[in-house]
Amino acid sequence: MLVDSNPPLLHHYGALLHQPSDKNPQLHENHITEECQLPLIDLEGLKSHDVSYRLACASAICRASSEWGFFQVVNHGISSELIKKMRREQVKLFSAPFEKKQTSGLLNNSYRYGTPTAAHPTQFSWSEAFHIPVSKISDQTCYGEFTSLREVMEEFSTAMSNLSKVLAGVLINNLDKQEEAAGDICESSSCFLRLNRYPACPFSPEMFGLVPHTDSDFLTILCQDQVGGLQLMKDSKWVAVKPNPDALIVNIGDLFQAWSNDVYKSVEHKVMANEKTERYSIAYFLCPSYDSLIGSCRESSIYRKFTFGEYRSQIQEDVKKLGHKVGLSRFLI
């Protein structure tokens, strides 16, 4: 007997199973051939008095962004104590009854679960999340009874913002872009913090915790627990990312791929559900303002210029019509 979860994911997923057969393809097959160890970069190198160490660290960041689209960082400046405090508050928040999360206006009404647009099981994510604009994190009225969450969230988002700007600066400098570009890329008021929970799922290992996708930002910094489940596309196959308790994961988003004219790669990734254990993660999304123009930093761009707002609108339209994101291919010249 399957037990439904908080939130009621099983109910929504079950409804998809009753779709006509032509709209209900078989669940995806998992073609995992190996567990990968992402490039591991010690950010202490960026602070070294030795120029060669600084250059080597920056080079490693840029190389991983081109070859993998993903890397891990240690000595990143976010203390383990802060991460533990953030995780405790996150677990407390998600432990609230579903009705309270859904209807109480918590965190700027940012709560979401499952995939409302899913037309069949392969489009369904077995997860729940709060996708919070950074601009709202200081708003006391967003927290309700979860008053202890605000101070921790403010400290955590500030630390993630500072780290994202350091990494973006390295990637910008590598392509000799004029300094004014950094201000557009590092517009923290348009950024988001996403608190994720992936409940234990009776359909694992076939079930997505988060469907395959690329991120629609400049870059993402992920703080995950040790349960595992993150997978990425490498050399045309899915590989599982081995959790590292001391590291944060960084991945390139669509906007950096377009801006760099495909020098940096926005790589497809997904989360697989776990049959017995719930999983938590926190992601920081570095986004520009909605009217920022995304153009290539080099001549002979393969993408036409577009604003972040235009890009988001196109994604939302595609998801509504097609059930999935199309992304950068919409903007090829």
From TrEMBL:
One of its GO terms (biological process) is gibberellin metabolic process. Its EC number is 1.14.11.13. Residues 187-288 form the Fe2OG dioxygenase domain. InterPro entries: DIOX_N, IPNS-like_FE2OG_OXY, IPNS-like_sf, Iron_ascorbate_oxido_reductase, Oxoglu/Fe-dep_dioxygenase_dom. It catalyses: gibberellin A1 + 2-oxoglutarate + O2 = gibberellin A8 + succinate + CO2. Belongs to the iron/ascorbate-dependent oxidoreductase family. GA2OX subfamily. PANTHER family: 2-OXOGLUTARATE (2OG) AND FE(II)-DEPENDENT OXYGENASE SUPERFAMILY PROTEIN-RELATED. This is gibberellin 2beta-dioxygenase.
